[in-house]
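SEQUENCE-TO-STRUCTURE ENTRY
===========================
What this section holds: a protein sequence and its matching fold, both as plain text.
Tokens: labelled as protein backbone structure tokens, with as many entries as the chain has residues.
Question of interest: how does this chain fold, as expressed in backbone structure tokens?
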Amino acid sequence: MSYVFNRITVKPQLPERIKRLDDISYNLWWSWNTEFLRLFKIIDIDLWEKCKKSPIKFLKQVSQEKIEACTKDEEFLKQYDKIVKNFDGYMNSKATWFNKKYPEKSPNEMIAYFSAEYGLDETVAIYSGGLGILSGDHMKGASDKGIPLVGIGLLYRNGYFDQQINGWGDQECIYKEVDTDLLPIKPVKDKDGNDLIISVKMPLAELNLKVWQIDIGRRKLYLMDSDIESNIEEYRGITKTLYGGDQEMRIQQEIVLGMAGVRLVKALGLEPEVYHMNEGHSSFLLLELIRQTIHEKEVSFNIARDIVTAKTAFTTHTPVPAGNDIFPIELVEKYFDGMWNELGITRDEFMRLGMKPGDDFSSGFNMGILALKIAGRKNGVSKLHGAVSRELFGDVWPEVPANESPIGYVTNGVHICSWVSPAIKELYNEYLKPYWQDDISNDETWNDIYKIPNDKLWSVHQARKAKLLKIVKDSTTSRLRRYNYGYDEIEKITSGLDQNALTIGFARRFATYKRATLIFRDLERITQICNEKNQPVQFIFAGKAHPRDVEGQQLIKYIHELSLKPQFKGKIFILENYNIGMSRYLVAGVDVWLNNPRRPLEASGTSGQKAAANGVINFSVLDGWWAEGYNQKNGWKIGTNSEYQSYDEQDDVDAKSIYDTLQNKIIPIYYDKNEKGYSDKWLEIMKNNIATNAGRYSMSRMLDDYTKDIYIPLMNATKNSYSDLTNVATYNTWKSEIAKAFNDIKISQDKSNSNDITVNAGKIITVKCNIEIPENITIDSIDPQVYYGKITMSGVVDDIQVLPMKLEKEENGIYTFSSKINLKSGGDYGYTFRIIPKHPMLLNQMDLNLIKWITG
């Protein structure tokens, strides 16, 4: 006989004395102030572990009796009061970095930050990898620094998948629906107390989106959700799965993120000065902003575009063309049919907004190109990636030398307090200056690392390693038991885990360019390295492959198979379901962080920055951030900066470099242990690593750069120039006139210039050019420049330098400009002259794709 039960959910009532547990639980401030979470351990440690460290879930399930008991526990109340005081002090402080640095800015001058995913905490699974983790850290960092920023994203009911690795090494994807009742998330209400709903047009019907809010310290993140009853069935699943579905679902998600996202900002009553697109997924926001500007200000498309350009920034994370979403023109036409009429342009002009000059419609509509063409500031995410991006997207501006494409860089960083282990943080609290967290990006803050006694640092590190190895053992045991491995067999594998062995970690997305299996290229050498009796080495791998990435999944399978071979049992481990929680243990618990992507395809690689902040030493290809961070004393490099004829050649060279460096440097240093059981040289490198990388590659420094180089300049441009429609109209006319007249500018050598001469190193020479301009432009509209560099053996001018020129005289309509070249070192030099446009409202001189070179 079956029974039918009615369900009643009983929520424990928090006594008045500790009622703040509830509201602090709904603010992800606790995700980087983990002392708050210790309170739940005190209340009921078993339930805390069962709830997988979710405060909301815990408070819904804890017994009333245990809650009441805490009000009589003086030690608990003492800790509780301290945490509440810290939280309130943080939330209410007006003395933030931003307010001190930019006191002239009002709270209404803000940034809207758009990202397809946010990695905030393992209990909020709306992220897949590095892009999301960066976005989550961006929000936390903005909170810490008081930067007036609001986040916009999507609520994925299924989130990203949970990963299982079966007995044959195959990745299995498990999707679990998110229960919003158990998340630190609340629905946003409109002025009448109803759920706030944002609508956007779709081909079959209007799409309605419910809005949710997550508090992240002082900042707010708003997420849109399509899974509501007012939507037709076909559309309810649009925001269900992160990076799921086909191209049609992707364009639907990106319309929601970009276009509905802009409407959400407006519905919230916000008027951002800057819209920041974190990758191209949100680029449709540009079209919605232009549409709104046309209707609200009654201006043309070109003027609206200029206004939008002045308030938008675009960060690209991809080092390859395929990294951007490209939609077939027919699909774009289906979803945007008629929008070109609203914008006052033709269908073809609309489509070409997402295409490179000269491309035909078969190339599709590229979301990255759309952002690059319109956004006022564009950047890559490391110095090398900025250079790669300029070359990759150079033909968006075909007249501009690729290396001068208007794409800058801001090197990524990580939110230090989210990623350093609590024990390491306590060491920093003890030995760094008071309130070091408020001055993380200052190099001087980290000089005190050298005051930490070696014994203490090593002891803390070893404790973190022991915790990690327990997780490795438990995870491996659980996985193998699930697939019917015998107890003895499992014990044989896990008993080899050794806290005193050199432990190397590799954890990241299993994309093929990251070369997860490079270390196994020469099985004989890696077998020798792993099995050296007195100097053992153990490797821990973790990571997910995209469900459609068959090659990436094969890498996981290969490592699984190798880990079960006799020579690698107990030496090679692969963990399943890599997430934020597991990452925290890995970046703090291994000795060496291995990173060997195929250079230059790693845009940044922030996992190594997290490792560095914990004292874990990087061993990496000189790609992404490590190309800047490595200084020969703070870690080790793999390979060189050379270019190779083939991938096979590159893999051979890099693999050999890994083996040689391990056997000749890393392993000998690690095992050069003193009577206390550690290597003084190893501790020296650990400290160098922290001192030189923790602050420099922190989210704090990253946001210093974004604010100084991108946010503030755009805020000022909008406020000082682009808020005045007359100014914008005048500027728009100037752009049209300069474009028409540019080819009529004449530039020639001055007869005083030297050619084919020999001078001594250190000589400063003066060079001049003569310029004639058409009557409809002024001399103030052009910027003459000297373009010079060394001539290589192949006859190419390299190491280009650009020098400004000053006006010397004007006679009969001919303007003479001059500059000085300092020929510091020996060699052959070449120089020439060019002209580019100049205007106070031009955000980047290369944006107009106009350069006039001397031709004689």
